[in-house]
């Protein structure tokens, strides 16, 4: 899977609730943010070892209000402060966050 495939999914599947793109190093952060923005019903995101930064976490915080599970193992460019803000912004939901 690469950016083109992910963009096609984002454009045609606006009701996605589950996404697992573990170890997808050919997918850039811009594409990941695009699919997150296009599918606000996400409940489960596994982006283990994807090369993302705080930008993606901020997009998740503002777009994924139903999020219950987030796996960030191996995402070394994310600050703990940004993840803490994600939890605060989604305080109505219990979010299981792994990897940070």
Automatic annotation (TrEMBL):
<dbReference type="InterPro" id="IPR032675">
    <property type="entry name" value="LRR_dom_sf"/>
</dbReference>
<dbReference type="Pfam" id="PF13516">
    <property type="entry name" value="LRR_6"/>
</dbReference>
<protein>
    <submittedName>
        <fullName>18876_t:CDS:1</fullName>
    </submittedName>
</protein>
<dbReference type="InterPro" id="IPR006553">
    <property type="entry name" value="Leu-rich_rpt_Cys-con_subtyp"/>
</dbReference>
<dbReference type="InterPro" id="IPR001611">
    <property type="entry name" value="Leu-rich_rpt"/>
</dbReference>
